[in-house]
Specification:
With 182 residues, the chain is mainly alpha-helical. The protein has 9 helices and 5 strands, in the order H-H-E-E-E-H-E-H-E-H-H-H-H-H.
Length: 182
């Protein structure tokens, strides 16, 4: 599975530097050798960790790096636990290639889409999300209205918060109102 994810990442961005690791203990030496990663794709079952303890450990080690959990465990069993532990997204390995690709693509920073971009450079989707947040819609309501998955909503919100340099829905709504974005 790891090889398939690496191939998918390289297909999404051929210039992307991908470092493959087979255990959590290899992360610190890899960060020393290659620098902090842009993204971490984590399996919940590694030889030196099991369950969401790996997410917690990575969150402490690299607090600003987004973590996507790709696991064989069904989302009902571990998704909430992984998100509470600090992961930004969770997807079952049994999801289709298009779903996994879409999730990975949404976390890779595109040119001209860097964090901290001025609010006037928000995408149409991000402006749409701000309006929905201002209305108080839940992730489920947003997903239904936009006809996308809740996973995708969470990823879009994470990127929006990162771009606006806010940490919550209420901060994003407040900023949107004070900046005249909604």
């Amino acid at each position: 599975m790891r090889e398939a994810i690496v191939m998918l990442l390289r297909r999404l961005n051929s210039k992307l530097s991908v470092v493959e690791l087979d255990r959590l203990a290899a992360v610190a030496p890899a960060v020393q050798a290659h620098g902090a990663p842009e993204l971490i794709c984590l399996d919940l079952k590694l030889p030196d960790t099991h369950g969401v303890s790996g997410v917690r450990e990575l969150r402490q080690m690299l607090p600003e790096v987004p973590i996507i959990v790709l696991s064989a465990a069904e989302s009902l069993d571990y998704e909430d636990l992984a998100l509470e532990a600090g992961a930004q997204a969770y997807m079952s390995k049994s999801a289709g290639a298009a779903d996994i690709s879409g999730l990975l693509r949404s976390f890779l920073v595109d040119e001209g889409d860097e964090p901290g971009a001025p609010p006037e450079k928000l995408s149409k989707r991000q402006k749409q999300l701000l309006v929905m947040l201002d209305k108080g819609l839940s992730n489920r309501d947003i997903a239904e209205e936009l006809q996308i998955s809740e996973h995708t909503v969470k990823v879009h919100l994470w990127r929006l918060f990162r771009r606006l340099n806010v940490k919550s829905r209420s901060q994003a709504s407040h900023l949107a109102r004070t900046q005249g974005l909604v």
